[in-house]
Design brief:
Blueprint lengths: L2 H25 L3 H10 L8 H11 L5 H10 L15 H33 L3
Helix pairs in contact: 1-2, 1-5, 2-5, 3-5, 4-5
């Protein structure tokens, strides 16, 4: 991946993480409950990680083969933790796989950010 593309991907990830953290904190009345719900059920009430990733891919024009390849190129060395998504066409498979891998990374990044937020707002427990 070219350096300018890496920079664009890093900006995308940080923007997504900041937006998602803000939404989680608002929906869950604070970072502690947001972190608890994200860990317990990433697609449960008040979290909806997959819906957020779907909307993000639409907003950033990534829900197409070129956008999916951009994301997959940035995350090429990541291990898959879930089975491959089912799809009838290559285009659908690329987009679904990009969303799956990006969602896993986003969940990890947001968990880290929420842990820091809880530590700073509530202090060590």
């Amino acid at each position: 991946m070219e350096l300018h593309q890496r920079q664009q991907f890093d900006f995308l990830l940080m923007t997504a993480a900041e937006r998602f953290v803000d939404r989680l904190i608002q929906r869950n009345q604070g970072p502690a409950q947001a972190l608890e719900r994200l860990r317990a059920a990433p697609n449960g009430p008040g979290v909806w990680l997959d819906d957020f990733v779907d909307a993000l891919f639409q907003d950033f024009l990534l829900a197409n083969p070129a956008g999916a390849c951009f994301v997959l190129q940035a995350l090429a060395k990541r291990r898959l933790t879930a089975p491959l998504p089912q799809a009838d066409r290559v285009e659908e498979l690329l987009v679904a796989l990009a969303k799956q891998v990006f969602g896993e990374l986003l969940r990890s990044k947001v968990t880290e950010m929420l842990e820091q937020e809880v530590l700073f707002t509530e202090g060590p427990t």
